[in-house]
Amino acid sequence: MSKLPLEKVKVLDLTRVLVGPFCSLQLADLGAEVIKIEAPGGGDESRSFGPFMGERSAYFLSLNRNKKSVTLNLKSSEGQEILKKMIRGFDVLVENFRPGTMEKWDLGYETLSKINPGLIYTSVSGFGATGPDCHKPAYDIVVQGRGGVMSITGQEGGEPTRVGASIGDLTAGLFTTVAILSALYHARNTGKGQKIDISMLDCQVALLENAIARYAVSGEAPGPLGNRHPSITPFNSFKTKDGYIIIAVGNNRLWARLCQALEVQCLIEDSRFSDNEKRTVNYRQLETALEGSFIRQTSAFWLERLEREEIPCGLIQNIGQVLRDPQVLSRGMVREMDIGGEQTLITAGIPYKFSDTPCERINAPPLLGEHTAPVLRDYTGLSDKEMAELRRKKVI
């Protein structure tokens, strides 16, 4: 059986809800052993988020496959001592408490790195560990708004709009994963661990792409443009007889093919649209000219004709359509995950495709504290009698 890329990496996951669990999900999918530390009694808050399958949160289930759950009260001195014993056996720690919380519990980087000098200690928070706002709380919508993404999302002239997926959390989770993998590479070469500080707000700024370039050149803050591109035209969605179709025409060759496919060859010679810059300046007139053609036929008709001309195009699909898309299915991106009790949950597959270390395992997300006894026995040497006493005291 092929090994997974991170098979020998051990991760202590102290995160909750979305940004941290999405990072540790990537590491778990890549083969790392991820031990999720949860508070006794309730665990990760997302276990109480809907929608539910029976008594289990589908939200939690979708983010915590391939992990193990250990209950440990980090607010107690005994829980803190247990974690300090455990940390010797781990390569990575990930936490997303508010800055200062881990230090208050004597579990900060300075403490744990003395116990394990090779430890990669990773903190992800709304605004990072430094700066005037480092202690402020943050959720996805807060950083989407403050980070500028909402100001450029939505219909032209419309109100600021939150991106439909939680990209404030998700992108920070992905940036955190990249940082951890980079630190693991460094540690493999030097034997030295380090602290990683990730800010959700920083990650939103890093995503602003050409919006920053446009502001730097013009001095004017960009606003929402709907579905069109600020510097490539036509690059937008168009209403058809029965829905919408997207086209992306990035050069004059494709522009000529589009005009032929739509049977509006007269636009090829129109001086207003002779190159991309002019098409972008005159986008309103251009899109009006194209709309009259698209509305006369169905999306399927235009998709077949445009694909025949090798014009980048596609449909706007709802989630149900995405889950039935032949290309998505052929890539293994829709999976059924066994969640126990003869129940299964549809979940996104693993997007990493490796030739030698394929990542295909989809293990059920853990019940709260499901792996407490075996993990503590392996990593701390605690006996069954000692663990029974810790349970009585609600330490585990």
Write structural notes for this entry.
- This protein has 396 residues and is α/β, with parallel strands linked by helices.
- It folds into 2 domains: 10-207 and 330-392, Crotonobetainyl-coa:carnitine coa-transferase, domain 1 (Rossmann fold), CATH 3.40.50.10540; 235-315, 2-Layer Sandwich (formyl-coa transferase, domain 3).
- The protein is 38% helix and 15% strand.
- It has 17 helices and 13 strands.
- The strands form 4 sheets. Strands 5-2-1-6-7-8 form a 6-stranded parallel sheet, sandwiched between helices. A 3-stranded antiparallel sheet has the order 9-10-11, with helices on one face.
- β12 (334-340) and β13 form a beta hairpin.
- α1 crosses α7.
- The longest helix has 24 residues, at 167-190.
- It starts with 9 loop residues before the first strand and ends with a helix.
- The model has no long low-confidence stretch (mean pLDDT 96).
Give the CATH topology of the largest domain: Rossmann fold
Known CATH architecture of the largest domain:
3-Layer(aba) Sandwich
What is the overall shape? elongated
Q: Report the average pLDDT across residues.
A: 96
Largest beta sheet: strand ordering: 5-2-1-6-7-8
Number of helices: 17
H/E topology pattern: EHEEEHEHEHHEHHEHHEEHHHHEHHEEHH
Rounded to the nearest angstrom, the radius of gyration is 25 Å
- Helix share bin: 25-40%
CATH class of the largest domain: Alpha Beta
